[in-house]
Design brief:
31% helix, 182 residues, 27% strand, 2 helices, 9 strands, alpha+beta, 9-stranded mixed beta sheet, disordered N terminus
Length: 182
């Protein structure tokens, strides 16, 4: 009897969890007065660069707002807060910028904008790890490394060793070719 009750409770919990996402989204939209969205109500928001490290300034633009319009963007998902989009240099395009916060974790994030005409635009931003230049020695197990300064004494010594090796090699080859051994 206990097993059957556990199965029924588990099935009920899983069913409730499956409906919670869509229902919660619909309730939240209704609370905000956002009902009756159609598939075409969301226009594309172009995000450049498409992937950025924390601290990077990101530019967004959209044609959803129409000519000489403006919009308010929302980049709070990446710590960029709200920002303004104003008419750009191209006709019917509004442009805005925000900065990805330094503590933002890597992953995909959605950026949105609400136009003055009531239209919405959304786009995706991928936050990456910090882009840092390599620091320190390369750990290859071989040892040594390359320096950024040149030492004329070391260059002269290296050239002398190469010259002595070349002269010695030529002397041995000539001696071998002549047949003399001593």
């Amino acid at each position: 009897m206990r097993r059957r009750t556990a199965h029924v409770l588990t099935a009920t919990a899983l069913t409730a969890a499956a409906f919670t996402g869509p229902v919660a989204g619909a309730v939240a939209a209704a609370d905000l007065g956002m009902t009756g969205f159609a598939a075409g109500d969301f226009a594309p928001l172009e995000v450049w660069p498409k992937s950025a490290a924390p601290g990077t300034t990101v530019t967004v633009n959209t044609k959803a707002c129409g000519p000489a319009s403006h919009a308010e963007g929302d980049a709070s998902t990446v710590g960029g807060g709200r920002f303004k989009l104003s008419p750009g240099t191209h006709k019917e395009v509004v442009v805005g910028q925000f900065q990805v916060a330094h503590g933002t974790r890597p992953g995909p994030y959605e950026i949105g904008a609400t136009c003055a005409n009531g239209k919405f635009a959304t786009g995706d931003l991928i936050v990456t790890e910090h882009d840092r230049a390599p620091q320190g020695h390369v750990r290859t197990g071989v040892g040594g490394g390359m320096t950024t300064t040149t030492d004329p004494a070391k260059i002269a010594a290296g050239a002398a060793v190469l010259a002595a090796t070349a002269v010695g090699g030529i002397w041995l080859l000539r001696r071998r070719a002549s047949g003399t051994r001593s």
